[in-house]
Amino acid sequence: MAAGGGDKGGRVTMAAIGRLAGVSQVTVSRALSDPSKVSADTLRRIREAIDQTGFVPNALAGALVSRKSRLISALVPSITSIVYSAMVQAFGERMRAKGYQILLSETGSAPEDEEDAIMLHLSRRPDAMMLTGIHHSPKARKVLLGAGIPVVELWDVTESPIDLCVGFSHGAAGRAAADFAADAGYRRAALVHAGDERALRRKDAFAERFRQRTGQDPAEINLNAPASLGQGRLALSRLIEETGFGGGLIFCSSDLLAHGVVTEAQARGLRIPQEIGVLGFGDQEFAAHVEPALTTLSVDREALGRQAAEALLCRIEGEPIDRPIFDLGFKLVRRDSA
Amino acid sequence: MAAGGGDKGGRVTMAAIGRLAGVSQVTVSRALSDPSKVSADTLRRIREAIDQTGFVPNALAGALVSRKSRLISALVPSITSIVYSAMVQAFGERMRAKGYQILLSETGSAPEDEEDAIMLHLSRRPDAMMLTGIHHSPKARKVLLGAGIPVVELWDVTESPIDLCVGFSHGAAGRAAADFAADAGYRRAALVHAGDERALRRKDAFAERFRQRTGQDPAEINLNAPASLGQGRLALSRLIEETGFGGGLIFCSSDLLAHGVVTEAQARGLRIPQEIGVLGFGDQEFAAHVEPALTTLSVDREALGRQAAEALLCRIEGEPIDRPIFDLGFKLVRRDSA
DNA sequence: GATCAGGATGAATGCGCTATCAGCTTCGCA
DNA sequence: TGCGAAGCTGATAGCGCATTCATCCTGATC
């Protein structure tokens, strides 16, 4: 262990601080939660005792009795993806400013893992919960509703959220991409994606709209793997070698994949955007700075996180919310890759 | 609120489940913590009651009395940097497999923020704590020692850890980079970094060694901003325009900056590695796949996280650790950029 | 001097659970 | 038939704190 323990054999509690300062446990509690309720002299003695002993209040006990844990639970598929980490960062920053801590778990992509994680999180009695996506198991929905806490679902919109949702329509995003492709004169298209549920919906919407507009079916590469530059390069190789893709617009499910496609295209001497156009998704920082700069669907990840935090805080503080569905939209940013 | 509450007005507790199943609260507790201690029939009735009510045990109360929260606290400067998020992911995965949850906070780079975060985390009575770096305020050290829990410091090594440390020597890394530069025949060098404390130590070690080996002082650009591709491009521009850098090896504090430097060099028509060599740090996924592939100092972030988890688990389970300092080293991976 | 408002403090209570010890069956075996 | 062992269950006692209510003091007001 790191330690030789506290001051004495027993651990330091408010009662112990009280004994040192010559007051009761209650007064110590008051001194910490609302110093104005305690006389200046008492406050000074209590603070001295705290400094002396290195006392750290036990938030477990506090939360147990007050029924307020000041803990917000957050579930994301992965934190190594900037997509989610930037959102969680903005979310957490806002929550921390309001005195809440974040209990964060990765759920992967399997719904049953999410269910387990939800149960584990609820057992810590969080004051609110943030989930990614709008698809959850029936049991998850049930326990969430039963928990009686505000819940926000992120990265998507639905008319029937568990409680609140903040996101944008992936169908609309896919259609916007297809319209862009058709308007820009592309007569062929391909879809490269990592296989996650929301990417699939963008892809399907793209395919349908592109077919309507051009009469052509896009080729498709489902990588079924976390997005990475290497996977993006691989995707273009497979597109060319497996499907005989000879040019057109490639709509990627993330900027990282798009960057990989661009890199592979350059390595093969293919000209961008003349021979192939590349459309990314997310508008991550690097998108504007690579060569050629990526044309991409821009999503404000920080705004998603902030808005989610704001909505939950309203709920926690009992303020009315006129509409629990926040559609933050997206923007197509045209640069040089398509 | 999301909910209309539980089944009744009051909330569901073990006592309520017991009433439903016709047993006492204690038996419910046993059924959950060790089902073998309860008869098959009782177990079935308890499980039915739990399913019916959607009961979720209150881990706050459990932790309060058992003095085991099954919570591990983790403090990192930022989760949007893959450097830390990949490490936390590996750390969390191992811990989750052992039944622990992670309480994660971002501390930024200010030491006083870390101190606040440590106090907040300790108030939740975690079973162990993971910190980034080996520099902490005296007060932080004191409360950490007083908490009596295992502590691991990550990303660096020191002879005097608070409890455990897992990392590598940044001085050695900087020197290895300088030796590589000198051995490869570079007579000029430049240092591009984001300004964080560990990058500064690598930089200083590089500068000193490079001077010894070549008699030359490296140029330096301190970006004082989170590493990004755009910052990397900016850095090369500044290097050329402010310091008149005309060629040599550029040692970057991260692969992302290195990638930016490479991108800017290509945009300016500079040949790599003939005119300028670029050495990255971290060996992130994309390093091997960009063109030219990045030469970089490889650090196994997942191994850091895993080893940290393993060491903490040993401490928690009371197993002996012969040496609390784990130096996991680094590797120089030569590819095409230098 | 009596009365009262307001500030400062403390005693008692219980949040929901685990740990401990004690009680009750049942069964095997002498 | 008796008796200990083993299996199952319950009563009780806190964990450390916030909440509630009661108490005491001070000073202002009539």
Describe this structure in words.
2 copies of one chain form a homodimer. The longest helix of chain A is centred in the middle third of the chain and has 18 residues. The first copy, chain A, starts with 13 loop residues before the first helix and ends in a 5-residue tail after the last strand. In chain A, α5 runs parallel beside α12 and α8 packs parallel to α9. Chain A has 3 domains: 44 residues, no CATH class; 127 residues, Rossmann fold; 129 residues, Rossmann fold (3-Layer(aba) Sandwich), CATH 3.40.50.2300. Chain A is of the alpha/beta class. In chain A, the strands form 2 sheets. A 6-stranded parallel β-sheet of chain A has the order 2-1-3-4-5-11, sandwiched between helices. A 6-stranded mixed β-sheet of chain A has the order 7-6-8-9-10-12, sandwiched between helices. At the A-B interface, α4, α5, β2, α6 and α7 of A face α4, α5, β2, α6 and α7 of B. Chain A binds a DNA duplex (30 and 30 nucleotides) through α2 and α4.
Percentage beta strand of chain A: 15-25%
At the third CATH level, what is the topology name of the largest domain in chain A? Rossmann fold
Oligomer: homodimer
**C-alpha-based Rg of chain A, rounded:** 26 Å
Shape of chain A: elongated
Sheet with the most strands, sense and barrel status of chain A: 6 strands, parallel
- How far apart are the first and last residues' alpha carbons of chain A, in Å? 58 Å
CATH superfamily of the largest domain in chain A: Response regulator
Give the CATH level 1 class of the largest domain in chain A.
Alpha Beta
Structurally, the number of domains of chain A stands at: 3
- CATH architecture label of the largest domain in chain A: 3-Layer(aba) Sandwich
List how many beta strands of chain A DSSP finds.
12
Q: Helical content of chain A, roughly? A: 40-55%
Major beta sheet, strand line-up of chain A = 2-1-3-4-5-11
Number of helices of chain A: 12
Largest interface (CB < 8 Å): A-B, 70 and 70 residues
